[in-house]
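[Archive record]
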Amino acid sequence: MRPKKGATVSTPLDWKEVKKGLHPSQFDIHTIPKRIAKIGDIFKPVLGRGVDIMKCLKKMEG
């Protein structure tokens, strides 16, 4: 999110949403919470379980 009136929010889209008439202004701090409530977080499957950062740090220490 950007601290500017009318600023858009970056959000993943489903391919079926990418069509003529799509405009970034459709996605802002007011519309994104409703979008997530309706369709869920479509990026979640990409992220998987996440990373255990403490485990990574321990490996780096040697």
